[in-house]
Amino acid sequence: MKRLRKLLLAELAEPSTRAHKSTTAADEAFAAAEALAGAGPVGSHHLLEALVRSEGSMAARVLADLGIDPDAIAAKIDELDPDTTTDATPEETAARKMEIRLGDGEAQLVFRDERTLELVRRITEVTGGPIRGTGPVAGSFVPLWSSTNDLLLQLLGYLQAEPEDETKGLLKMVRKVMRDRLRRP
Predict the structure, then answer these.
(1) What is the rounded CA–CA span in Å between residue 141 and residue 132?
(2) Residue 108, phi-psi category: left (phi > 0), alpha (psi -120 to 50), beta (remainder)
(3) For residues 34 and 27, what is the distance between their CA atoms, to the nearest angstrom?
(4) pTM (two decimals)
(5) DSSP-derived 3-state class of residue 1
(6) What are the C-alpha distances in Å from 17 to residues 12, 20, 23, 134?
(7) Least C-beta-crowded within 10 Å: which of 65, 78, 89, 97?
(8) Which pLDDT does position 49 carry in this prediction?
(9) Are 94 and 116 in contact (CB under 8 A)?
(10) Angle, helices 44-53/70-79, rounded to nearest 10 degrees
């Protein structure tokens, strides 16, 4: 027994030479979690939702046998405040307060996080008016315009999927999740 303990302690003390191994189901679940996270970091809620939606995996089977509904998990994730967990990042907290609205002949990008509001207040005080992308400032607005349009095209892609895309596992799951979330009030 002492010899076994000594071997185990030696193993723990030295870096492992064993290559990282995982199952197909685990790889697919992590890929789904990454897709659900989008450009943000993967959080435990992304992993949970990916696991419950991983068709054919042991995790999905166990959760289904326990009566756990994937849509109920998604609704509960959306209902709870992630800012009170260790999954929150400052960037995602700010992003959750953003909105894009369609008005009378214009689209409005709304920021509600305090950092952005303070910066806009300071610039508005200095300039005495709204921040416009005109003159030499126009070039600085190009990345905002580009990233906004990239985001809108991505969201449109989730909502208007091509019929042949609907048969692909990961893409099908991500589209369903995003459609459901974008359609919620």
Answers:
(1) 9
(2) beta
(3) 11
(4) 0.70
(5) coil
(6) 11, 9, 19, 58
(7) 65
(8) 92
(9) yes
(10) 160
Q: What are 12-64's pLDDT values in tens digits? A: 666 655 566 889 889 989 988 998 888 888 999 999 999 998 888 999 999 99
| End-to-end C-alpha distance for the chain, whole angstroms | 61
Question: CA 80 to CA 76: how far, in whole Å?
Answer: 6
Determine the Cα–Cα distance for residues 101 and 108; give it in Å rounded to an integer: 5
Place of tokens 């492992």: 16
Please state, in angstroms and rounded to a whole number, the distance separating the CA atoms of residues 93 and 137: 28
Residue 119 tokens, joined: 């910066």
pLDDT the model gives residue 144: 94
Q: Which two tokens stand for residue 172?
A: 């099908």
